[in-house]
Design goal:
Layout: H1 2-33, E1 46-48, H2 55-72, E2 75-81, H3 89-99, E3 106-112, E4 117-122, H4 124-129, H5 132-148, H6 152-171, H7 190-216, H8 219-243, H9 250-267
Parallel strand pairs: 1-2, 2-3
Antiparallel strand pairs: 3-4
């Protein structure tokens, strides 16, 4: 009877282990699936989170955005990021529009430099006058080549005037960007890039830490989850050696599930 009791207790413990592992795995996967979005500062429509644009380009871009807005009521926003945090370009772009509370007259240009991806994401009114086919042709003709060469200033300096002309035709207005982007096509040298990258990371350091804590849990929680999963793996390994399994095949499965959880926790690129 004692032997049956111990065997039943082992099965119950294994079942609880499986349940807790599944819950932690599901919760952690959900946290990891939520991308991080760059902040958009007050009175700004540019978020160079990847720090790849020169000051001259940012200044010209800001002036061009104001001109386009004044003439057509189209609100252009530009974001550069390093990675999409595992999301597709479409999902990230739509999520960023929602995160920034962009509306029907807003148009977002998203550049992901670490994954060589880019796209335009417009509101309903913008897409009605400037269909996705035209947007894609503009990106391919005026931005793609320079962007893939990692000449991000050149990509912006070629794309924004071309975009402004398409917007002008669609809205029946005149948009004059003469005098802008004249010297912006010069590639950014490494020293300047590193200097601005440090400045950018210092400026948003607190916000990045807060975003990581909110979206992926504090480091203590990550450590505790790791310890729990390791206990499942090595605990089951010891039980298999001492008892040669519980007779139901649950322990190897729980170890496998815990191993997948560890891989998802530490192996997934963020």
């Amino acid at each position: 009877m004692m032997r049956r009791f111990l065997k039943g207790l082992a099965i119950a413990v294994t079942a609880l282990t499986l349940a807790f592992t599944a819950v932690f795995f599901a919760l952690w996967s959900t946290a990891l699936a939520e991308p991080r979005y760059p902040a958009l500062h007050t009175d700004s429509t540019i978020a160079d989170a990847a720090a790849v644009l020169s000051r001259e380009t940012v200044n010209d871009l800001a002036e061009a955005i104001d001109i386009i807005e004044d003439e057509t009521d189209v609100y252009l926003h530009v974001a550069t990021v390093d990675f999409l945090d595992g999301a597709s370009l479409q999902r990230y772009g739509e999520g960023l529009r929602e995160h920034w509370n962009l509306g029907d007259d807003d148009l977002l240009l998203l550049l992901c430099v670490g994954e060589d991806k880019f796209g335009l994401f417009g509101g309903r009114d913008v897409n009605r006058r400037l269909p996705s086919g035209i947007q894609q042709r503009l990106l391919s003709a005026s931005l793609e080549e320079s962007f893939l060469r990692q000449d991000y200033d050149g990509a912006i300096s070629a794309f924004i005037p071309a975009l402004s002309q398409e917007i002008a035709r669609a809205w029946g207005e005149d948009i004059d960007l003469s005098g802008l982007f004249g010297a912006a096509a010069k590639p950014l040298d490494m020293a300047d890039w590193l200097t601005r990258r440090v400045e950018t990371e210092k400026r948003v350091e607190r916000q990045i830490v807060k975003l990581q804590d909110d979206e992926s849990g504090i480091s203590l929680g990550k450590a505790l989850l790791t310890i729990f999963l390791l206990m499942v793996i090595f605990g089951n390994s010891g039980k298999r050696r001492n008892r040669r399994g519980c007779g139901c095949g649950c322990m190897p499965f729980s170890s496998l599930l815990a191993g997948i959880g560890l891989w998802n926790l530490w192996g997934k690129k963020r």
